[in-house]
């Protein structure tokens, strides 16, 4: 599979450096599974598509390799990496450890403005939960968690977790279309916010732990459904 067949068109902002824009675009396509594990990313095709020289394309691919999202074989090919389950488990450990403290911090302060913002996000999630617009629901899920990091005063940790989450996010993306999954995510989020609003940090942590445990508990089922997408 070539890059040209799968990477959506993109207009570069000529006022910004090109390599970060190409990186962000390719990363989004990989996490959305538009570029599936094993897809070939041709430097020549990418240069033609973006109208760029080799250097920014190379730099973007090297950044993707640093996040483990592509495998670069010098003088041969660059492939979208298979989902690394060991990496996904470690990222889950990191994320759970941080977010347990995030929800505890929020529950101890229970700022009404923060709670109102989270509830507004929940309302949008509820409207999307019964549809098949998984991409829009995913964006709301991400913004919900990001808002909690920001409210807890640790936005840089969100960026850290995000930079480590490529394998875990693709695994979760494969699980998202499962019937009832979006409704369950909305329900989990609602329980977390209710516990935060009730100034109950222990309950907020309990609901968060339950929320983050679902996908990894179903790895065998997901692997059976998508053979060839994974490596241990």
From TrEMBL:
Secretion signal span: none
Matching CDD domains: WHTH_GntR
Domain of life per record: Bacteria
Protein name from the UniProt record: GntR family transcriptional regulator
Entry's Gene Ontology molecular function annotations: DNA binding; DNA-binding transcription factor activity
Xref: SMART domains: FCD, HTH_GNTR
Record key words, sorted: DNA-binding, Transcription, Transcription regulation
PANTHER family, sorted: GNTR FAMILY REGULATORY PROTEIN (PTHR43537:SF45), TRANSCRIPTIONAL REGULATOR, GNTR FAMILY (PTHR43537)
Gene3D superfamilies, per the entry: GntR ligand-binding domain-like (1.20.120.530), Winged helix-like DNA-binding domain superfamily/Winged helix DNA-binding domain (1.10.10.10)
């Amino acid at each position: 599979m070539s890059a040209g067949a799968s990477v959506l068109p993109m207009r570069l902002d000529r006022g910004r450096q090109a390599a970060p824009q190409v990186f962000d675009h390719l990363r989004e396509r990989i996490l959305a599974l538009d570029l599936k594990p094993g897809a070939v990313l041709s430097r020549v095709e990418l240069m033609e598509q973006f109208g760029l020289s080799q250097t920014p394309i190379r730099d973007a691919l090297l950044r993707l390799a640093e996040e483990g999202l592509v495998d670069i074989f010098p003088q041969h090919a660059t492939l979208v990496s298979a989902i690394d389950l060991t990496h996904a488990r470690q990222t889950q450990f990191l994320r759970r450890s941080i977010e347990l403290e995030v929800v505890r911090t929020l529950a101890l302060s229970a700022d009404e403005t923060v709670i109102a913002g989270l509830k507004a996000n929940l309302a949008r999630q509820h409207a999307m939960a019964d549809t098949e617009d998984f991409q829009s629901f995913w964006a709301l899920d991400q913004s919900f968690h990001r808002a909690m990091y920001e409210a807890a005063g640790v936005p840089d940790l969100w960026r850290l977790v995000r930079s480590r989450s490529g394998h875990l996010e693709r695994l979760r993306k494969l699980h998202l279309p499962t019937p009832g999954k979006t409704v369950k995510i909305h329900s989990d989020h609602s329980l977390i916010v209710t516990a935060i609003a009730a100034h109950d940090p222990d309950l907020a942590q309990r609901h968060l732990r339950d929320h983050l445990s679902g996908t990894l508990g179903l790895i065998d089922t997901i692997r059976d459904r998508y053979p060839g997408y994974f490596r241990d």
